[in-house]
Amino acid sequence: MIKILLFLTHSFALADSSEDMVAPLTSTLSNYYKSFFVPIGAVLAAVVIIYGGVLYSTSQGDPGKIAVAKEYIFGAIIGLVILLSAGYIVSLVMPF
Predict the structure, then answer these.
(1) What's the pTM?
(2) Among the residues of the chain, which ranges form H helices?
(3) pLDDT tens-place string over residues 13-70
(4) Distances (CA, A) of 12 to 15, 25, 26, 33, 48
(5) Domain, as residue range, for 44
């Protein structure tokens, strides 16, 4: 976090115009997104999918427990799809 703040203050101090300030900020946030949020989100999604699988396998045929397990698995997959597509969507909206 301190690295981000130092880079941002250094970038803003060196920038002459507002256009010069946007490019370093965007590339820095994109790099941190790819190197920090994607791996952590993928690990969390895998843990939740495994937890849902354990719930499913230990449900003993109970429809309520099976439904809860499927919700965990489905939610983790949807979250992973959103996480992985967010970078692509932002690059379409803000092509730098």
Answers:
(1) 0.65
(2) 2-14, 18-32, 38-57, 63-93
(3) 444 455 555 556 556 666 777 778 888 989 999 999 999 999 999 999 999 999 999 9
(4) 5, 9, 12, 20, 40
(5) 35-96
